[in-house]
């Protein structure tokens, strides 16, 4: 049996290849049978073996290069074994018999952990020592084990390094433990499995391919998709009979696409064998919620082969621009360190073992490169994240990536979705157009009266009237046209009415009887699209109500209370490619078969009969910001339908090219359809979208709106939301299909200045294909860009392009960024965005919160990190300058100035708290930052941390280090200990005063930190008698000398700062004064 199926597969494969040579190579394994692969492999392996056997000449062969051949073969074999990825193949799954599976399928366990017990420490260390800073310190610390290079105590180098690594390892361990707990929770969820002996509970991780799992009703989701069971198994009397039948599912190989599935269900023990086609509507993907009833499903894919896991990319560690800039500066510091050491050895005159002295100088000045930089910045980022989440003005905001909060302060491009981000995704029916007459919200009562009349007339003449289709064609009255249009809208959809029972549990009505109470109060509509719900709610408001629906029929209630039943013969669901959905129904009373279809005007204009109004009216509605749908119908005879059904079922059973064949059969019906009406639905804007977009535009952020909507709708929303300001021109990019057209259109666009660009996805594709660089360059100069008719993959591609071409920070905001390459992806978690929200770096609940997130938190995070980074560098530079002065005065001796605990204490308890308190600093009050968004423009220039500001800090460090050291040397009595005491105390005071000088807005914690550090230093003097002369410290001489040196090192800087604020104040100080 298996053999037969394989050979059949092979034949299909060959025929398919002949039919379509250009088929995608990725799908090849699906077409070739397993047998074909086996043969290929065996031939492949036997060939080299045959050659070897011919060449074999014993020892002579081995010596003449045979050994090399063997070694390479072994290593290749090992590499293949380590790297080998399992080929994914189509599979045959027997119902309830996991043991019958030919292949070994992956375990159904979720694993999101980065490391395991063995790889944790090596992995974390690798991630740390990847950074130049940490690697450098590791080398320096290890060098202390060499006696000739030893400078002072081991702990002066190992303690800071150990502290940094401990903080990192603990943080990673906590994250890893959380991931482990989440995984364990998911893997130990219990499911009901059906076995021969009845129901048993199994853990999620123990589910196998072929198991029968029972999924019960759950509450929760609002977004419904209708799913259909395999009809052949519905007729079995009891659950246990599933094990007595001989049936299997043949399913395609695991793949990424969650919107398609191809398979067949075969029952072999019936006569004849039953074959049933399976498609996406027969599947439940992982973590589906069942809204009503109970489902028994056979497991097809598990673990790594499920769609959800295959679509999850490994999260990238995002690195912010500020981190990259600081990394560049550390490299510059390293060069300075090498240069300084070489200068010292040169001044020494290269005497003795100079290379050893060079290395000792490198170690002495190693404090130029601050090891605590990364720890300070990481702790700062965690603090910013906490502040964002605790901000009461933007409730519900979640920071999921703590490594990039400073990026929020440097955005140049903001890419946004429309539906659910700028708009509420709540639809309201606004307009019905019949070609000659149009109805708006104020004239809906006319439609209602027409519907009431037409149904009451029908009721009177029922029985004596012929079916309308056989009547001669005359121009229909407005009333009958409205009746047809409303009926079509009420029937052509995927909406299900649900009745909440009095106890609050939703119970679907099983059978609708004429006298059953379909009370309107407890009916709600469920559908996967809010547009469809809006249409059905509208038909209810004009008198035609959808009261019940199951797989095979639906019932409508007329204004007079009569129930009309329609049998559903076929449904063609909406897809993003076809942009339309259709349904074939049979009227129970008359037996008429009608094919209804509704869809986007682009798709429908070629399907409906010729008319002169559709295109124009679609444009008019779109300009009002309405989403349009075209509704059409076609009456079918019984013979036409039977012919269609047989061809359709045959197409659905084909294994290869199923979608194309099915589409071709459906298209044979979609010809010369009768155009019924055009509907317009409005999607309302979210609260405060206009002021927020205006604020972002004033802040110099260029906004791109990428949407799947029509060009006119997108343009209209862009105007109404103030994405494009009132006085701005809009350039609509004409549709282009060839290189020449794109060239001409780009030239036309180049001549326009300061105008917003509107372009469709198709034209964009052509431009990017031939003129990528030119197009991006022109588009980047526009104040706003609107891309309409964009697919999610196109959206992701645009983000990538912007980052690649401009090198600027981009941020994507919305729910449909399937693959956010953007540095920041804030998502408004509206009705449809829960999954999207989990994948975001920042999640916000409303679009208006983006303003405060960028203007206030983005600004503060960037400014604070820049100040913190430079201050930590200054702390290292000043002590290295003092060491350089000290060494040059004492005949270039490579002897440390401060030893042991003094060095460790300087970088930690004496200065750590005041320096870190810079994360509480702010230059502008939040209200100011929001009132004057123009202040944000300065941030994008990156002036807070640049080579210029860095050089200023270097000069400050050199000046202060020189003053502190020369001052101490000039004023010291006779003991070296006194130099150390005076200079070190002055150094600590200088650092504390410099923090005070850098702060722009005081916070009570900053004051506490300053006095706490000073207190720690004074208290520790009592214990540092091996470094200081305690008797000398308590004298007045010591105090005045320290004070004098500190004043000389800090006062000039205070004076300079005062003069700068007076004569060249920064832009924000002009506002605050």
UniProtKB/TrEMBL annotation:
The active site is at 417 (4-aspartylphosphate intermediate). Its cofactor is Mg(2+). The keyword Transmembrane helix applies. It is a multi-pass membrane protein. Residues 838-1065 form the P-type ATPase C-terminal domain. Pfam families: Cation_ATPase (PF13246), PhoLip_ATPase_C (PF16212), PhoLip_ATPase_N (PF16209). Residues 101-158 form the P-type ATPase N-terminal domain. GO terms for molecular function: ATP binding; ATP hydrolysis activity; ATPase-coupled intramembrane lipid transporter activity; magnesium ion binding. One of its GO terms (cellular component) is trans-Golgi network. Its EC number is 7.6.2.1. The chain crosses the membrane at residues 155-174, 332-352, 358-377, 872-894, 900-920, 950-970, 976-997, 1004-1024, 1030-1056. InterPro entries: ATPase_P-typ_cyto_dom_N, ATPase_P-typ_P_site, ATPase_P-typ_TM_dom_sf, ATPase_P-typ_transduc_dom_A_sf, HAD-like_sf, HAD_sf, P-type_ATPase_IV, P-type_ATPase_N. Mg(2+) binds at residues 417, 419. It catalyses: ATP + H2O + phospholipidSide 1 = ADP + phosphate + phospholipidSide 2. It comes from the Eukaryota. It is an enzyme of class 7 (translocase). PANTHER family: PHOSPHOLIPID-TRANSPORTING ATPASE IIB-RELATED, PROBABLE PHOSPHOLIPID-TRANSPORTING ATPASE. Belongs to the cation transport ATPase (P-type) (TC 3.A.3) family. Type IV subfamily. NCBIfam families: ATPase-Plipid, ATPase_P-type. This is Phospholipid-transporting ATPase. It comes from Cyanistes caeruleus. The gene is ATP9B.
């Amino acid at each position: 049996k298996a053999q037969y199926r394989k050979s059949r597969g092979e034949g299909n494969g060959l025929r398919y290849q002949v039919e379509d040579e250009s088929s995608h190579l990725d799908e090849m394994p699906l077409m070739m049978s397993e047998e074909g692969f086996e043969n290929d492999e065996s031939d492949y392996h036997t060939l080299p073996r045959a050659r070897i056997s011919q060449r074999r000449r014993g020892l002579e062969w081995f010596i003449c290069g045979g050994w090399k051949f063997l070694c390479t073969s072994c290593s290749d074999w090992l590499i293949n074994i380590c790297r080998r990825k399992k080929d994914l193949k189509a599979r045959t799954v027997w119902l309830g018999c996991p043991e019958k599976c030919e292949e070994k399928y992956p375990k159904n366990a979720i694993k999101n952990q980065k490391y395991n017990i063995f790889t944790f420490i090596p992995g974390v260390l690798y991630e740390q020592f990847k950074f130049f800073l940490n690697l450098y310190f590791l080398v320096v610390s290890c060098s202390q084990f060499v006696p000739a290079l030893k400078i002072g105590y081991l702990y002066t180098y190992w303690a800071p390094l150990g502290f940094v690594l401990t903080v990192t390892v603990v943080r990673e361990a906590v994250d890893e433990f959380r991931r482990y707990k989440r995984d364990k929770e998911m893997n130990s969820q219990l499911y009901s499995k059906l076995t021969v002996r009845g129901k048993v509970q199994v853990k999620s991780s123990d589910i196998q391919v072929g198991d029968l799992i029972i999924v019960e009703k759950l509450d929760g989701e609002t977004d419904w998709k209708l799913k259909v069971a395999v009809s052949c198994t519905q007729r079995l009397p009891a659950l246990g009979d599933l094990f007595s039948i001989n049936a299997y599912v043949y399913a395609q190989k695991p793949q990424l696409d969650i919107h398609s599935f191809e398979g067949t269900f075969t029952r072999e023990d019936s006569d004849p064998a039953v074959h049933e086609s399976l498609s996406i509507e027969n599947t439940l993907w992982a973590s589906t919620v069942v809204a009503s009833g109970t489902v028994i499903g056979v497991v097809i894919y598990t673990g790594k082969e499920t769609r959800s896991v295959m679509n999850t990319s490994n999260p990238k560690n995002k690195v912010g621009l500020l981190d990259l800039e600081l990394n560049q500066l550390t490299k510059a510091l390293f060069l300075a360190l090498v240069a300084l050491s070489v200068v010292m050895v040169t001044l020494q005159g290269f005497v003795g073992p100079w290379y050893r002295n060079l290395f000792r100088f490198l170690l002495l000045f190693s404090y130029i490169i601050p090891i605590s930089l990364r720890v300070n910045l990481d702790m700062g980022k965690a603090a910013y994240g906490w502040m964002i989440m605790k901000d009461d003005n933007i409730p519900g905001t979640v920071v999921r990536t703590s490594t990039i909060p400073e990026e929020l302060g440097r955005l140049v491009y903001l890419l946004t979705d429309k539906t659910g981000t700028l708009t509420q995704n709540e639809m309201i029916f606004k307009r019905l157009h019949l070609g000659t007459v149009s109805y708006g919200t104020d004239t809906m009562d006319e439609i209602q009266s027409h519907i009431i009349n037409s149904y009451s007339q029908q009721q009177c003449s029922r029985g004596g009237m012929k079916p309308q289709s056989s009547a001669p064609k005359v121009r229909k009255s407005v009333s009958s046209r409205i009746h047809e249009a409303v009926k079509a809208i009420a029937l052509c959809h995927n909406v299900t009415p649900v009745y909440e029972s009095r106890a609050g549990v939703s119970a679907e009505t099983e059978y609708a009887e004429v006298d059953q109470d379909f009370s309107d109060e407890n009916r709600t509509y469920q559908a996967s699209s809010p547009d469809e719900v809006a249409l059905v709610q509208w038909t209810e408001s004009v008198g035609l109500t959808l009261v019940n629906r199951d797989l095979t029929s639906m019932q409508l209630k007329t204004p007079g209370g009569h129930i009309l039943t329609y049998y559903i013969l076929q449904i063609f669901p909406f897809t993003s490619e076809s942009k339309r959905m259709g349904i074939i129904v049979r009227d129970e009373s008359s037996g008429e078969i009608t094919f209804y279809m509704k869809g986007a005007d682009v798709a429908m204009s070629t399907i409906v009969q010729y008319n002169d109004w559709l295109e124009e009216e679609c444009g008019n509605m779109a300009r009002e910001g309405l989403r349009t749908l075209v509704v059409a119908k076609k009456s079918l005879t019984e013979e036409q339908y039977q012919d269609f059904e047989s061809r359709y079922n045959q197409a659905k059973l084909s294994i290869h090219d199923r979608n194309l064949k099915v589409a071709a059969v459906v298209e044979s019906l979609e010809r010369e359809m009768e155009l019924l009406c055009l509907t317009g639905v409005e999607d309302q804007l979210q609260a405060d979208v206009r002021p927020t977009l205006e604020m972002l535009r004033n802040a110099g952020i260029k906004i791109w709106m990428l949407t799947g909507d029509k060009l006119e709708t997108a343009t209209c929303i862009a105007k109404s939301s103030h994405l494009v300001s009132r006085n701005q021109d809009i350039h609509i990019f004409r549709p282009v299909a060839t290189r020449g057209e794109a060239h001409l259109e780009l030239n036309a666009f180049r001549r326009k200045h300061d105008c917003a660009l509107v372009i469709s996805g198709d034209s964009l594709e052509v431009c990017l294909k031939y003129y990528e660089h030119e197009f991006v360059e022109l588009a980047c100069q526009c104040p706003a860009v609107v891309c309409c008719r964009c697919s999610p993959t196109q959206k992701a591609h645009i983000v990538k392009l912007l980052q690649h071409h401009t090198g600027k920070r981009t941020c994507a905001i919305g729910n449909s960024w399937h693959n956010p390459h953007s540095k920041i992806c804030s998502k408004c978690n509206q009705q449809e965005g829960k999954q999207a929200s989990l994948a975001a770096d920042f999640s916000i609940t409303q679009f208006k919160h983006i303003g405060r997130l960028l203007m206030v938190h983005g600004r503060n995070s960037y400014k604070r990190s820049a100040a913190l980074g430079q201050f930590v560098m200054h702390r290292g530079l000043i002590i290295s300058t003092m060491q350089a002065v000290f060494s040059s005065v004492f005949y270039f001796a490579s002897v440390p100035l401060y030893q042991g605990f003094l060095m460790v204490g300087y970088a930690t308890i004496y200065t750590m708290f005041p320096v870190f308190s810079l994360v509480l600093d702010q230059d502008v009050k939040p209200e100011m930052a929001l009132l004057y968004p123009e202040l944000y423009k300065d941030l994008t220039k990156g002036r807070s941390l640049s080579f210029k500001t860095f050089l200023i800090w270097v000069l400050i460090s050199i000046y202060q280090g020189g003053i502190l050291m020369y001052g101490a040397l000039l004023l010291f009595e006779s003991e070296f200990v006194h130099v150390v005491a005076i200079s070190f105390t002055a150094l600590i005071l200088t650092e504390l005063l410099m923090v005070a000088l850098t702060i722009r807005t005081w916070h009570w914690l900053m004051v506490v930190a300053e006095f706490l550090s000073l207190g720690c230093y004074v208290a520790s003097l009592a214990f540092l008698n091996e470094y200081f002369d305690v008797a000398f410290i308590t004298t007045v001489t010591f105090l005045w000398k320290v004070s004098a040196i500190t004043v000389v090192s800090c006062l000039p800087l205070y004076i300079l700062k005062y003069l700068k604020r007076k004569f060249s104040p920064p832009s924000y100080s002009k506002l605050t004064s």
